[in-house]
Amino acid sequence: MLQFLSNCWRFAVAPSTVTWACAVLALAVCLWWLIRGTALVSRIGVDGLAVIAVFATAHFAVSFVCRVGGDVLGALMGPLSMFVSTVGSEGVASMLLAAVVVIRPLPGTALLSIATVFLLNALFSGQFGVVGIWMVLISVGCFEIGLWVFGVTRHAAAPAGSATCGTGTPGPATCRLAPRVAAAIGLANAATLLGQYCIVQEMYRLFFADWYVAAVVLITGLGYGAAGAALGTALGARLRRITL
Q1: What is the full DSSP assignment across 34-102?
Q2: What's the mean pLDDT when you consider all of the chain?
Q3: How many whole angstroms separate alpha carbon 159 and alpha carbon 237?
Q4: Do 102 and 157 form a contact (C-beta atoms < 8 A)?
Q5: Rounded to 5 degrees, what angle do the CA atoms 138, 68, 186 make?
Q6: Which residue has the higher pLDDT, 54 or 6?
Q7: Residue 26: pLDDT above 50?
Q8: Cα gap 150→5, rounded to integer Å
Q9: Which of 111, 145, 189, 213 is the most exposed place for a label (fewest CB within 10 A)?
C-alpha cells in the first residue's frame, strides 16, 4: 500500500517542477508587495495592524514552544513526532491566522501576519537566510491566493452583529464562512509544506520517502490546518464584534 502511494505521489509531484513554480510564486509576491504594499497597509489601517501584531506574537510563541517540544519528541519518536508536534505548529497557528483574517478580511492581512512571525523567529533564532525568505514568500503566496480564490478576502465579511447568535454560539454567517476559510487555509498550508519539502530536496539534496511527505502534507498541512482554521473562524467572528 505504501509503495502504491509512493508511486502515485512521484507521478503527480515532480520536485524540480514544484521548485521552479515556487520560484515564480516568490517573485510574484515580491512584485505584488512592491506595487501594492503601501495601499494594502493603508487599507488595513492602524487598528488592523495592531490586531495583526497581537496575533502574530501569539503565533510566534506557539511556534517557538512547538519547536522546542518537537525536538524532545523527535528524540523519542523519530520522524513520526511530526504528526504530534504539528498539532500546535500547524493546527493552532492556522487557528490564529484564520482569526486575524476574519477580523480583517483584506488582501495583505495574511502577508503581514506571516511576515511578522518570520521576523520574530529570525530575531530570536538568528536564522535569516535566503532559503528561509524564499519559503516565507511561498507561504504568503499560497495563503493570499487561497483566501482570495475562496472569497474570504475578495468579498466583505459578514457584519459583526450577525456573527454569533444571542447565546454566543456561531450564527449562520459564521457557519457559512467557516468552510471557505478552512478550505483556503488547509489547502494553502498543504501547498506550502509541499513546496518547502521540494525546495529542501532540490537545494540540500535531503530526501524523504514519498509516502512520508504525502502523509505530512495531507495530515498535518491539510487536516490540521483546516481544523484549526474552522475553529479560528469562530474565534475571529466573536472578536470582530468587539474590534469593529
Answers
A1: HHHHHHHHHHHHHHHHHHHHHHHHHHHHHHHHHHHHHHHHHHHHGGGGHHHHHIIIIIIHHHHHHHHHH
A2: 81
A3: 9
A4: yes
A5: 35
A6: 54
A7: yes
A8: 29
A9: 145
DSSP assignment letter at 159: P
Q: What is the phi/psi pair of residue 157, to 5°?
A: -75, 170
The average pLDDT across 52-63 equals 88
Q: Do 241 and 160 form a contact (C-beta atoms < 8 A)?
A: yes
Evaluate if residue 48 carries a pLDDT over 60.
Answer: yes
Would you say the pTM of this structure is higher than 0.70? yes
Find where cell 506595487 sits.
35
Neighbours of 144 (CB within 10 A): 21
CA 114 vs. chain centroid, Å, equals 8
Name the residue with cell 514519498.
Answer: 210
Let me know: does 131 contact 23? Beta carbons within 8 Å: no
Amino acid letter, residue 23: A
Rg (CA), the chain: 18
* Interatomic CA distance for residues 174 and 184, integer angstroms: 15
Q: What are phi and psi of 164, to 5 degrees?
A: -135, 160
DSSP for 196-222?
HHHHHHHHH-----HHHHHHIIIIIII
Q: Which of 90, 84, 104 is nearest to 59 (CA)?
A: 90
Residue 10: pLDDT over 50: yes
Residue type, 104: R
Q: How far apart are CA 106 and CA 54, in angstroms?
A: 17
| Lookup: cell for 65 | 514552544
Question: Which residue bears the cell 459578514?
Answer: 158
